[in-house]
Design brief:
The protein is α/β, with parallel strands linked by helices and 310 residues long. It is built from eleven helices and nine strands. It folds into two domains: 3-187, HUPs (Rossmann fold, 3-Layer(aba) Sandwich); 201-297, GMP Synthetase, Chain A, domain 3 (2-Layer Sandwich). A hairpin with a 7-residue loop joins strand 7 and strand 8.
Amino acid sequence: MNVKAFIERKIEDIQKTAGGQKTISALSGGVDSSACTVLAARAIGSNLKCIFIDDGLMREGEPEQVRLIFRELGIKVDVVNAQREFFSALKGKTDPEEKRKAFRHKFYSVFGREVFKSRAGFLVQGTIKADILETKGGVKTQHNILEQIGIDPEKGYGFKVIEPLKDLYKDEVRIVAKALGLPEEIYLRMPFPGPGLATRVVGEVTPPRVAVVRKATQIVEEEIARLRPFQAFAVLLNDQGTGVEKGTRKFGDIIIIRSVESKNALTAKATRVPWAVLERIAKRIVKEMPQVTRVAYELTPKPPATIEYI
């Protein structure tokens, strides 16, 4: 891929498609949406409004971190707090596909409202090739794929979608992001699912349960960062394990650690994490999170498993 030519072509495409209309960029802070945001900013300048939806399902401190990173790039980010809306949409749902559908509907409803308020005609989003292939193949519905499942965003939500990276895999997106001048903490960032930590809570997604997996994920990322895996995170199971505290039995949460190596997210294998690192992660989790009594490491490759749990 000729990166310079790709960037020039996509900037021109966005200019032609959006014309002089107001356009919203759906920024999550991941490499895909970040690269799209910079492409759109270069293409249409002040006609772009960059929005970060705080759905309550992000990593620790993510909304503020993303806002500061893009301020350094000269791009203003408006943070919209929609936590109550997303948790309300997910309330009572335990089926993985139903949770994804609920998130997708709320995601586009919130952005549709922002598009209407801004009188924008387009939404720029970071769809990549793996998202399309997994949805089309029936592996799991990605929240940002609408046409494959028969939804017209213009009729349903009031805007058209621009997807500059839909023909690229993750490794190619990283190359483009680096060439666009995004910092290393963005272009080398581990993938983070569109539905956020909702994909790492088995069973019902509630604020307390998300808080558990958020803290566990923070510990995993801190301890495993030097290994530079493709993706590493924690999962909260919908069950409890028996533990012992001061000679008394107690029941607590079960955390699964998942770390994989992959090139394009279509296949993956478990990272060979040194035993000392795994021990350190487990000790930190149970010490810093007294509600957790069990920590395990998962080895299943993709396929047959997916990278994320739901």
